[in-house]
Design a protein that fits this description.
The protein is built from two helices and no strands. By secondary structure, it is mainly alpha-helical. The protein is rod-shaped.
Length: 108
């Protein structure tokens, strides 16, 4: 008779599934919100540069538009912070599946 306190063995990589789902949600949410965040950041930086020029007492004589300057703060590091563990989790999950299939074929 089987004891009711015995739990079925946990699937290999089930925690990875949650991690992958969470990271995918984060990447999609960040991708959807990045346009709005970039426009807001650009407006903040334009305002900052305008205040700096007023404090220096210089007029805007540069031919460059503020849109052509690269942003000081971007979302690219945050995107890499989410994508790198996502790729690593997928590779670990695939490696575990490959290893379990290979072990199962060796048993037979």
């Amino acid at each position: 008779m089987k004891d009711s306190t015995d739990k079925s063995p946990q699937k290999s990589g089930s925690g990875l599934h949650y991690l992958i789902a969470f990271l995918c949600f984060g990447v999609v949410a960040l991708s959807l919100a990045s346009g709005k965040i970039n426009r807001r950041q650009q407006a903040i930086e334009q305002q900052f540069h305008g205040i700096q020029q007023m404090q220096r007492g210089t007029a805007t004589t540069s031919d460059e538009s503020p849109e052509s300057k690269p942003q000081a703060i971007s979302l690219r590091p945050l995107m890499w912070f989410l994508v790198a563990p996502l790729v690593a989790a997928w590779l670990i999950l695939l490696w575990r599946r490959y290893r379990s299939i290979r072990n199962a074929s060796n048993i037979e």
